[in-house]
Amino acid sequence: MTHLRKMMLEDLQRRNYAENTIRSYIRIVKDFSRRFQRSPERLGPKHIREYQSELFTKRKYRATTVTGYLAALRFFYTKTLKRAGSIAETPYPKRAFSLPTILSQEEVAQLIDAASPPVHRTLLMTLYATGLRRAELARLKVTDIDSRRMVVHVPGAKGRQDRDVMLSPKLLGAAAHRHTVTRSQAACRVPRASELRSRRPFGVRALIELGFAAAFQAKSARSQKK
Cα separations (Å) of 7 from 10, 11, 30? Predict the structure, then answer.
């Protein structure tokens, strides 16, 4: 670990930044340094402006992504190197706001019904009914479901703040049924060693993939009906 990397890591940790943010900031500064083949300590406003331009023109990044890159560089130069002038001349890009695509109730039902196996259907139901972020759903546990108060407890959500979301009776029934089926199947037979090694929690990437797969299945089903 280089001296500058260690300094930046300590600055981020002392300010209690999230682990994902720490990894992202360090990766961005490393990418910036690699682009110009020299230490970031020897780079200045001219290089930052050129780097920002390339993020838009060559890499085709969106304004929100470029803003994240500039935030990492701003932290490095203002907090770690104490050189506020290096980034002050590079403002954050203007963001374009567009309305999201809203699915109808019928389309949502088709999307959820197209998911297979049942555990995937339950995951999509949870995303839709609670509005959880993908990473929040990936960390969710059975013990986070409070059936008495009809809420789902989301520990360590965005900004490291706990929050509660409403739990619908339909989602509670689906989750309880899936949990019961899973426990009964596990009690019926002894799993093989290869199955134990493959049993990992659903990650964010896996949730994205199952969403795309369900959307494809739903689209195919609609095409066949026509």
Answer: 5, 6, 14
